[in-house]
Write a structure and sequence with these properties.
The protein has five helices and 13 strands. The protein is of the alpha/beta class. The protein binds zinc ion.
Length: about 230
């Protein structure tokens, strides 16, 4: 296959952040019930399943996902970093120092936490690893070419560490002359699907096109080298 998706299909029992409503996807008009065609009603929080956070998620005046251009969602130099993490652990500076990030435009962190997503959703939602807020700051300061971070956890921030979780998002989203443009953050990614990380060539993050919302569920399409 030349193209794969690094996102999950959204379904009624997709794990969502604690406090958000479960997705509700149900048939509306159905041929089997005498209707002339099939249709469905989709009722979901915008932070459900694989989704992309924009600054408007944490900053009231921040840019929202519907204000981005198509160019902003194409990444020619993405990288997936293996950073195995246990419950509540942080991805820290030492996890990325060995990696060559020069010229990269997107980093996805593979913590391995996906293994809990189906078999133990409570652990997936309550004890997820997160990213050290200082690392987010460091990435923006040292690698302004990076426009997006992603993770195979329900959030970039650990659920057990709400202060740091908020700060990780703010460090990604705040306007600061020293730091270049704010980042996009993709959460709840499926990064196990790719075996050879060196094959990753391009990534397209394709959010639902809905006017006025801060962030959106998305498909993450990856092109592999042949
Ligand atoms: Zn989110």
């Amino acid at each position: 296959m030349q193209y794969i998706t690094l996102s999950y299909m959204l379904e009624g029992n997709s794990p969502v952040h604690i406090g958000l409503k479960d997705p509700n996807i149900y048939p509306n008009i159905q041929i089997s019930k005498g209707g002339g065609y099939n249709s469905y009603i989709i009722n979901v929080e915008n932070h459900s399943g694989t989704h992309v956070d924009a600054p408007g998620h944490f900053l009231d005046m921040g840019k929202i996902i519907s204000e981005y251009n198509p160019d902003d969602f194409a990444f020619n130099n993405p990288v997936i970093l293996n950073v195995p993490k246990k419950q509540n652990e942080f991805i820290r500076l030492e996890d990325v120092l060995e990696s060559d990030l020069k010229g990269k435009d997107c980093i996805f962190f593979r913590t391995g936490f996906t293994k809990y997503r189906e078999k133990d959703p409570e652990t997936y939602l309550k004890f997820n690893p997160g990213i050290d807020p200082d690392l987010v700051y460091w990435i923006r300061k040292n690698y302004p070419s990076i426009r997006c971070l992603g993770i195979d956890c329900v959030s970039m921030g650990g659920y057990q560490k709400p202060e740091e979780a908020k700060k990780a998002h703010l460090n990604a989203f705040m306007e600061n002359e020293e730091l270049g443009k704010p980042l996009l953050l993709v959460e709840d990614m499926n990064l196990e699907i790719i075996e050879n990380l060196d094959l990753l060539e391009m990534v397209f993050i394709i959010p639902w096109q809905i006017k006025g919302i801060d962030s959106a569920p998305c498909t993450v399409l990856a092109k592999l080298k042949q």
